[in-house]
Amino acid sequence: MKADSKKLAYVGAQPTKKEDTRDSDSWYTPQSELDKVHAALGQIDVDPFSCRKANKIVKAKKIFTQKNSSLNKNWFPKGKTGTVFMNPPYSRGLISPAVMKFLEQWDKDQIVEAIVLTNNATETNWFQSLLHRATAICHVKGRISFYNNDGKAVSNNTRGQVYFYFGDDFASFHEAFKTSGSVALLIY
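and the corresponding structure tokens:
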């Protein structure tokens, strides 16, 4: 018996509209995790890899979307700075450029404080680049239950996650994330 690919949808009804199909680069951060980000950062000025639907929870002042890509723009107007929360697209072709763009903006002193949420991919160059520039890190115990644009949990999350903190307020980051996993101040 051969499986019918049209019937191999995720649990629930098979999507009929393009906007309802699942996108492996659109794993939305759940409210419970964003509550911690808000506790550590206060307001979020920029979410560089987002959409209007995700921003209902993120509540960033400014978002960049697939149509308005953050990869070829400065994230803040000249002379301005602010905070960033970044949950980048995880696909192999996008995460490295996303991380490199974040670090470029950090190095330009445009970002005053940031939290970057990624998979725990310690063997990758992009992970090591974040690790060697971050102020602190939180290794999440377990796995975060992300959700997709249809509001359903993503069931194929096969890696643990890490929060990278960039900024000067380690105490606030530690307080917000201490129950999430191991929090460590990075010293170089």
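(Above: one complete record from the training split.) The chain has one domain: 23-65+80-185.
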